[in-house]
What does this fold into?
Amino acid sequence: DIVMTQSPDSLAVSLGERVTINCRSSQSVLFTSRNKDYLAWYQQKPGQPPKLLIYWASTRASGVPDRFSGFGSGTDFTLTISSLQAEDVAVYYCQQYYSSPITFGQGTRLEMK
Amino acid sequence: QVQLQESGPGLVKPSETLSLSCTVSGGSVSNTRYFWGWFRQPPGKGLEWIGNVYFNGNTNYNPSLGSRFTISIDTSQSLFSLTLMSVTAADTAVYFCARHETDGYSFTYADTWGQGTLVIVSS
It folds into this structure.
């Protein structure tokens, strides 16, 4: 199985500040012949299901604010929130779908400072 | 807009069989663009992929979870189901159904999720 490791486990950020969450995979999730990284990011708020934010490492899902961006390729990825809003408080997960089984990072808890 | 809704018992006794269903509305489970999957999340913990099913009944499972899971689909009723045999306390979790996009080759990310249903295993 591909192991996904996120850092940090948690962070507290002030309103309006920039947020960076890292995700590393134990092997590359870049499908070179298709030129796509098989990596997604999800946001989960308490009592709610995960919400897809980013897929193909950098494509924003429908309706996702443009303050959310995904970067990276191969084994190292980042999710950036350009200016933290109160509604962004949540747990964020990266997920690889390069190979079965699909696996997730352990999650990063984002809080307001 | 497609919606998914889980249904099933909230409480199951140890060693019994858990059965959950996911009803799909606003879309068709026969759509070849999608796989239909199950995930779970133990209380206070992270997300785990259980497996998925295609419209033709082909399934994929997470081998790390063993062989107690069965996923099936009923296109006539627009639903898919999860069965888990011989449950233990370790199976206590919120179970989510979800829709996976395909990339033309296989399943990919899950773009739509049900609200989830909490299943507690206890005598």
